[in-house]
Every structure is written in structure tokens, then in C-alpha cells.
Amino acid sequence: MKQFIGFLRKEFLHIFRDPRTMLIIFLLPIVQLLLFGKVINTDIQNSKIAILDQSHDNTTREITSKLMSSGYFVLGEELMPGDDVEDVFRKGKVKMVVSFGTNFEQTLERDGKADVQLLADASDPNTARILTNYASGIINDYVKKEKLQNIELPNQINTEVRMLYNEGLKSVYMFVPGIMAMILMLISAMMTSISISKEKELGTMEVLLASPLKPIQIVLGKVTPYLLLSFVNALTIIIIGVFFFGVPIKGSFFLLMAESFLFILMALSLGILISTVAPNQMVAMFISVLALMLPTIMLSGFMFPIENMPLPLRIISHAMPPRWFIVIIKNIMLKGTGIMYVWKETLILMFMAFVFIALSIKNFKIRLE
């Protein structure tokens, strides 16, 4: 036991003495979280639109005011009848044009309906779809509450829509859990994947082999320091997510940290497994980044819905650990669920960690080749 503790102390000192390792462990995740959390954002804010008002009555002015005060839109240009709408789009000044027909207010009060046209620049289809959905919602909400509340329409069906767990439809609620899984996966696996490879390159593997330490003690000695440091890292990411991005933790904080601990252990074990088969640091880092980063982003459900993927990719996605971790942290943070709702995903991560550790010990070569 004393030998193992001494080995652990040596690993901690080795990490703390290397400023590049400290930067990668502590600074890089924070920078990535802040950068990705701000850049990867599908929310609409202050998008420039144009208004073509052919009626100029109180209702069209109030609807325009509602659109501008929503925070989603700003008035980029006010068009006059006869202006070329396509020319406005070609200049790139606005993303959408709201066009009110003539006698808008009179038609609405007389017939209970009136025409308003939303023209969007669909060269970016996702943005165009979001803009029109936001504008339609604001206009319909205004007309229903302000204009038609006292009018009885025959055979009217009122549809009430309520969004649970994310009433504001904030995209950051989706991205922060995904980014957290990606960062912990990449940083943890990358740091440990080069550990044993580095010992091989520097020629210090002989010292480990000549020591009375067993393979499992060497593997655990490599994993333990990064496990504790990555846990601190996970705590930092959660604090930033809560206080900087406003993502709530509705479930148990201790369960969230326990699940994060399990995921970090699994990622570190995978990194150790890579390091036992990679001949040098460069190959180990290449495998860690290339083989983990793209599948983590593409197949974990972080960016794209798994249900929309072809069957072979859906099957492959089951082998992606971040897929299960994202489900767990979304359930705990956003839905406030307990272990009874995420036990299956937890067992899968435990099984993966066990398999990676077992394969790492098996692949660890006692003698230098």
C-alpha cells in the first residue's frame, strides 16, 4: 500500500509540475465551455427585419411594436408599397419581411381574420424557420388576446401549448449538458491516453517495471490523480453552467456529481486503454481526439437527434458513452428526476468503465517489447 501511495504522490507531483498539463485540465475546459456555450446558440436575438405596412392602422402599429419589444427582432428597414422585397434580401440587410395587407384592422374586426405575410431569407433554412415561428407566435398571441377575446367564433378549437422543463425554449439548456459531456470525455481520455505512452517514450517505463507495483496498481495510479482533478473540473463546469448560463439543477446535486464521477472514471479508463495499445504519445493523442471527438459530437445526440439517423448509425450510437451521460444529466438537471429514472444509463456507464479497466489491465505489458 505504501508503494501505491508513493506512486500516487509521484503522479500528482508530475502533473502539478507540468504547466501545460495544468492548462489543459483546468483552463481549456472553461474556455471551451464559455466559447461553445456562447457560439453554439440557436436562439434568435436582435435579428433585423423589415416592415411593409400597407394599412397603417392601430392594429398593425401595435403588432409591430410587439415584435420590436420582444427582444427577438429589431427594425432594419421600413418598406413602402412598391419596394422590391427581393432586392432588400439580396442586400443582406434583413432576414425577414413582415407585410401587412390593406385595411388590416377593418378586415380583422369584420371577418375575424386578416392577412399578414412573413417573407424570410431561406438561404439559411433553420434561421428562417425560427424567425417565422417566433413572429407567428407573437402575432397570433397578440390577435387572440387583444382583438378576438370578445368574439365568439363558430366551431373554434383552442390549442394550449405548454413547454415543460424549458419554457423559454433556451438552446443553452440543450447545449450545456452536451458540451459538458464532450469536454469531460475528451479532456479525461486525452490526458490519460498519453500517460503510459509518455512513460514509454521517455524511457521511464523501466523504472515502473522494475518496481514491485502490480499492473492494476500502475493503472489505478495513473487514473486516480486525473480522476480527482477531472472531478474538480466537472464541478467547475457545473458552476459555470448554473451561474453563467442559467441552467438549473432541479434534481439532486449529489446524484449529479456521483454520475459525473462515474462518467469521468469511464473516460479515464478508456484513455488508459488507448495508451496501452498506442506506441507513442502522438498516436495516443490522435486516437483520443479523432476517434472520440467526432463520434461524440455526431452520434451522441448532442447535435443531431438520434432518432433521425440511419439504422447503422443508431446502432453504433449505443456504444457512445456520452449518449448515456447526456440523458442522465438532462434528467437530473432539467427534469429533476432521481436514480429510478436513470438506472439503466448508469448501469451502462458502469459496465463500460469495468470493461475498459479490465482490457487496460489485460493489455498492459509487463515486459518491454
UniProtKB/TrEMBL annotation:
GO terms for cellular component: ATP-binding cassette (ABC) transporter complex. Belongs to the ABC-2 integral membrane protein family. PROSITE patterns: ABC_TM2. Pfam families: ABC2_membrane_3. Residues 116-367 form the ABC transmembrane type-2 domain. This is Transport permease protein. It comes from Aquipluma nitroreducens. It is found in: Cell membrane. The lineage of its organism: Bacteria, Pseudomonadati, Bacteroidota, Bacteroidia, Marinilabiliales. The chain crosses the membrane at residues 20-40, 172-196, 226-247, 254-277, 283-304, 347-364. Gene3D superfamilies: abc type-2 transporter like domain (3.40.1710.10). Keywords: Cell membrane, Membrane, Transmembrane, Transmembrane helix, Transport.
